[in-house]
Write a structure and sequence with these properties.
alpha/beta; 2 domains; five-stranded parallel β-sheet; 10 helices; about 45% helix
Amino acid sequence: MTEQAGQGMVADRKVRLGFIGAGWWATVNHMPLLRARDDVEMVAVARRDPALLARVQEEFGFEHALTDYRALLELDLDGVVVSSPHAAHHEHAAAALRTGAHVLCEKPMTLDPAQAWELLTFMSSPDALKALLNGEARITARTDVNKQVLGGDPLLSLISQKVLPLTAYRPGESLYPQVSAALQQATADIVSGKSAAEAGAAYQKAVEKAVGAGKVSAS
């Protein structure tokens, strides 16, 4: 389970991770794999047993080792891995989501289907998206949130209100960099003196190449 809506992790620093729970699967899979990455910082781990907690901290180099998961959630983390006992997944995942962090929750997400739906509902709610944005002006999937967070950005407001409603097809995440680069090039072309028609034609050609001509129309 992960928060969505374009979360861009900060590219010029390591991703700050915390773990709620440190059982068998977390210590043989999640922690070794993530510790091995050079773009991840193992910030904190929370577990009730102080002796086992100390061993996990020493083995994986966590900066903080805490017996209360709520203290972990105060550490300004980018992501939280919930690997606690199954019965605690709902409580821990819900609390982590409310901080605006990305959340990976081991299966089962909850033991009660109603609690699972509660988490999914919250993840699409205005409160969840605003927590995730953390004050940043960024377009989300919710019109009501966009109106609140984009008020000070005329360009993003225009895109949100006038451009996206006309979009019938949105490329997959792997294609977005190509589309974004094409748009940036079109902007640079206009700034350098090309006409809007020339820049628009070049942009259309680049997007058609990236996503397929059948998914692009011009008006």
